[in-house]
Write a structure and sequence with these properties.
single chain, 326 residues, 2 domains
């Protein structure tokens, strides 16, 4: 099984290895937050009885106390427990939670390695799945993830956590705008790949954390972006390269396909794509001009507009022509 690079999968791989070594493992999940929280809902940590830890639920504020609680608990916990931090001003100060922040955590003893393996296989295959934990019984159930599923749902009797591969952003063209787009996308936890067959452009790339691909754009799209969690954006300013990528992407399963350029440029692009054999349904999927109409002019501003539109689409927010909800 290939080890994917994501915070959730790293925690699960560590937990799986510890279970395989016969260690007792507690999985901790951030179920609710109030005020300023250092970690988002659904964040995970796995902790062994001997004090090993993978992941984080507070950025380091409460982990030492969690380890102490787990080590001091002499009995085997068979049902999940809830633990709150930062309820009082004294606790917030003691645990270093910022600005009166508060956390509600779910602690559960992991016993079923097969469920963890199943989740990791789904992540590796770029699929999404929901793990439901019954807080009354400790029973776990794996459920199919609907489109635009929430990262985490918590109620009095259950917690449902979404697991899956990262959104994959394939950017065609290694230029200044691509660097700004990549930097924002990385902060939003996207997997970012920049494709450019032009050596002089690709060799000057400096942004860390980005996978570089020197194949022709259509080959890169066919290999890397043919699923519902993939995004393709063309930014080369070279119609030959952009059109190669778009011809493949618009008839693929990619979630979002966008192209840089003015309205006139994109109308001409649509006409070209039609003569190249792209279907009407495929052309209708094209987001062009890519990005929200926020008056952006500089590369950094255009990158903000592009990433804002991606976030809106992923959250299922329908936008009108002026960029606001209809």
């Amino acid at each position: 099984m290939k080890k994917p690079e994501s915070p959730d999968s790293e925690v699960l791989y560590s937990a799986l290895a510890w279970l395989g070594a016969g260690k007792e493992v507690t999985l901790v999940t951030v179920a609710q937050t109030w005020g300023s929280s250092p970690r988002p809902l659904g964040s995970l940590a796995a902790i062994t009885r001997c004090g090993q830890i993978a992941g984080s639920v507070s950025g380091g504020c409460v982990e030492d106390d969690l380890i102490a609680k787990i080590q001091s608990n002499g009995k085997t916990v068979t049902t999940p427990e809830t633990v709150s931090y930062g309820v009082t001003a004294d606790q917030a100060g003691n645990f270093g939670l910022p600005c009166g922040g508060r956390l509600l955590l779910i602690l559960e003893k992991l016993t079923d390695a097969e469920v963890i393996e199943n989740i990791l296989i789904r992540i590796e295959n770029r699929q999404q799945i929901i793990r439901r934990l019954c807080l009354k019984t400790g029973k776990t159930t794996l459920l199919p993830a609907p489109p635009a599923a929430q990262r985490l749902c918590y109620s009095g009797w259950k917690i449902e956590k979404l697991f899956g591969s990262k959104w994959r952003l394939l950017v065609i063209g290694a230029n200044q705008l691509s660097r700004y787009v990549a930097q924002i996308a990385l902060t939003l936890d996207y997997e970012v790949i920049v494709c450019d067959p032009r050596e002089k452009y690709l060799s000057s790339w400096q942004t860390a954390g980005v996978q570089l691909d020197s194949r022709m754009p259509d080959d890169a799209v066919a290999t890397l972006a043919d699923d519902q969690y993939s995004i393709v954006i063309t930014l080369t300013h070279d119609p030959k390269l952009d059109d190669m990528a778009l011809m493949t992407a618009l008839d693929s399963r990619a979630f979002y396909v966008g192209a840089l350029g003015s309205r006139q440029t994109n109308e001409q692009r649509r006409e070209r794509l039609a003569t190249l054999g792209v279907s009407k349904a495929g052309i209708a999927r094209l987001h062009g001009p890519v990005g929200l109409p926020i008056g952006s002019r500089s590369p950094a501003e255009i990158a903000v507009a592009i990433m804002a539109e991606l976030v809106a689409c992923q959250q299922g927010v329908r936008l009108s022509a002026n960029g606001s909800p209809p």
